[in-house]
């Protein structure tokens, strides 16, 4: 099939990779001047989340899928995108410690929870804490570079069209009319159009009725002169070693936002948190913002249009896109190519039925 994907963030990238691997021709329309969540994310894969130390949804299945998909993409593009790395969390008091210990006795948790992890060099560059707890099988996906490297491949192969998609062209692109003013290299018609627009999916008239949400996040990129940590550290904020002496520090979380730009207020918030944590001098290299594509019930949104099955969507990756995108794209592609059922918890029918 000839397939057009609208949006080349993480969702569009991995979906296109799978379709291409299955022998289909995939073109992209993407507006590169817009901010994309995939360019700002740390890509943390964290099996135990929140203050209640709950296992992430479906994590036992998501991790093998994550390692497999990013491994294959790494081979294709000649880079490593999956970086397994322990995550060390702070336990702030005896209550936290007790909760952690109780939780780790729950069935299926011990494999992910380490009671007295070695904090590595964390103690050399951060303030002392009550206790550390370790999350095993955690890691980081280099989402930003994966999307950027894939884009270079697409541009080289003339399969990337950098423009804002015009939704009024959908009927013509599906063959029900004549397409005009298409950029050089774009096909006049496509067999399928898949929408992976991130939070801007709310403006897509074909899928506007889904439970689109958005959560704005801001981060700092910070350099220290200290030797690089070999672990991710969560203490007030995440401190994630990216490369050399560069750290990703974040993130803020706002359901209400007027724009997707960095704000002074959130920079101050992040700097304050950083001052509480780091004991070594640091320099802020950049301050970035983007909107996470959330959904009303915090699940992905996957499926085909109720009356036009040639239109499909993968969205709602939310705060965990790095680990959800491999499985979400697998479900969507199996549905499109083999008619496989999409699990009801992520199927878009849950919004349309109501
Ligand atoms: C601050 C922050 C920190 C995060 N940290 C993590 C983390 O540690 N771990 C994790 O798993 N996840 C994290 N996330 C979430 C993760 O980034 C997202 O789940 C994921 O990247 C979403 O990918 P996407 O492709 O759906 O959306 P996006 O990356 O936003 O991509 C959407 C693309 O569609 C394009 N587009 C939209 N509309 C149109 C149109 N009409 N025409 C053409 N192009 C269009 C946009 O330009 C963009 O390129 C974080 C997000 C943020 C903001």
Under CATH, the topology of the largest domain can be stated as FAD/NAD(P)-binding domain
The overall average pLDDT, rounded, is 96
**Number of H- or I-type helical stretches:** 9
The biggest beta sheet is recorded as:
8 strands, mixed
- How are strands sequenced across the largest beta sheet? 8-9-7-14-15-16-13-17
CATH class of the largest domain: Alpha Beta
CATH superfamily placement of the largest domain: FAD/NAD(P)-binding domain
Class inferred from helices and paired strands:
alpha/beta
Kindly estimate the percentage of residues that lie in beta strands according to DSSP. Answer: 15-25%
Number of strands: 19
State the end-to-end CA separation. 33 Å
Could you characterize the architecture of this molecule?
The chain contains nine helices and 19 strands. The chain is of the alpha/beta class and 354 residues long. The protein has helices spanning 10-21, 59-77, 94-104, 122-125, 143-156, 170-173, 264-277, 321-338, 349-352; strands at 2-6, 25-30, 44-45, 48-49, 54-55, 82-84, 87-91, 113-114, 131-135, 139-141, 160-162, 192-195, 215-224, 232-235, 237-243, 246-250, 282-292, 301-304, 311-315. The protein folds into two domains: 2-40 and 144-211 and 296-352, FAD/NAD(P)-binding domain, CATH 3.50.50; 86-137 and 215-292, D-Amino Acid Oxidase, Chain A, domain 2. Bound molecules: flavin-adenine dinucleotide. Flavin-adenine dinucleotide is lined by residues 6-12, 29-31, 34, 36-38, 40-44, 143, 164-165, 196-198, 200, 217, 219, 250-251, 290, 292-293, 315, 317-323. Residues 2-333 form the FAD dependent oxidoreductase domain. This is Glycine/D-amino acid oxidase-like deaminating enzyme. It comes from Neolewinella antarctica.
